[in-house]
Design brief:
Elements (H helix, E strand, L loop, with lengths): L2 H18 L2 E9 L2 H10 L4 E7 L2 H18 L19 E8 L4 H7 L9 E2 L4
Parallel strand pairs: 2-4
Antiparallel strand pairs: 1-3, 2-3
């Protein structure tokens, strides 16, 4: 899949997730070690973390910036990114979203352990 198609799917899926859950706040990031970064976010209070895309570091930097910019321009005050991304580890090849979701009952915890969609993370062509 190409970057622009992936960007559209990522935004649509994240937006759908945000609209269908009690998300207090969320963070878009990139990493080269998803498990380690997810654990770091759990320690910060995030309870739902999903891989969104796997691609070259350049493509991931572009996607991170574009997704953050989209939600900031939309005025979504739940996004916790202070800038538009592209900082941090320049070798990162994984884009992810971390959310703090208010869980109302134990059934929601089990349901939300599933990823945003079975089609994620998206693997993006090197172009």
């Amino acid at each position: 899949m190409e970057k622009e198609s992936a960007l559209s799917r990522i935004i649509d899926s994240v937006e759908s997730y945000l609209n269908s859950h009690e998300v207090k706040w969320f963070y878009i990031g990139k990493t080269d070690n998803f498990e380690e970064r997810a654990e770091s976010h759990r320690q910060e209070g995030y309870n739902q973390i999903f891989e969104l895309a796997i691609a070259s570091s350049d493509a991931i930097a572009y996607l991170e910036d574009a997704v953050i910019s989209y939600f900031k321009k939309k005025g979504d005050c739940r996004i916790k990114n202070e800038n538009n991304g592209s900082g941090g580890n320049t070798q990162s090849r994984i884009l992810y979203v971390a959310c703090l979701v208010e869980m109302l009952n134990i059934d929601e915890i089990y349901r939300d352990l599933l990823p945003i969609s079975d089609s994620f993370p998206i693997e993006i062509d090197k172009k």
